[in-house]
Specification:
The protein has about 180 residues and is mainly alpha-helical. About 75% of the residues lie in helices and about 0% in strands.
């Protein structure tokens, strides 16, 4: 009878791509506690978003923020959904709000860079890159995205330097292929 237990079963079903059962578990968890932030976040991230119902996920996270304006995860999910909907300004707003809550939130820095690139705000993207590099140079995905931003800004020497750094790392450790775009 615990909503969080059904929510986690929903997550597990979603990870198995058993969408029918995932939805059923999330529905049960929401019936048990329709105000649970954890349940709504899991439902939005693991079911609503993969189903492509991004506007519904945005509505769900806005309700979470009404109850808890300091919810970092809700700000982050709003950033993701707006990015996927190509609503760059809204995405940037939510990623900045997330950084106001936690300046060390790694994903917010990386996605903020991607949003700036998409908007053609290269200078802002480079500034965000430099901030991110000062904190997360050891994170392969961040370095790859920063390299992409440098390349888009015409700073190819810096982009190549970061690519070489990642290629060197790949000789001794796993580097996500997506980091090497």
């Amino acid at each position: 009878m615990l909503p969080e237990a059904h929510s986690m079963l929903g997550v597990l079903r979603a990870l198995e791509f058993d969408w029918k059962e995932a939805e059923r578990e999330f529905r049960v968890s929401l019936e048990l506690d329709p105000r649970s932030e954890d349940v709504w976040v899991n439902y939005a991230w693991h079911y609503i978003t993969p189903m492509g119902r991004l506007n519904q996920a945005i509505e769900a996270m806005q309700k979470v923020l009404e109850r808890d304006p300091l919810s970092l995860i809700a700000q982050g999910l709003l950033g993701f959904c707006n990015y996927f909907l190509r609503k760059w300004d809204d995405a940037i707003l939510h990623w900045r709000s997330a950084l106001d809550l936690d300046p060390q939130y790694y994903s917010a820095h990386v996605w903020l860079i991607l949003n700036y690139i998409q908007k053609g705000m290269i200078d802002e993207g480079i500034q965000a890159c430099e901030t991110a590099l000062s904190h997360w140079r050891d994170m392969n995905l961040a370095v790859g995205i920063i390299g992409l931003a440098f390349a888009r800004a015409g700073r190819t020497a810096q982009a190549r330097e970061l690519l070489k750094e990642l290629q060197d790392r790949a000789r001794t450790a796993y580097v996500l292929p997506s980091s090497l775009h």
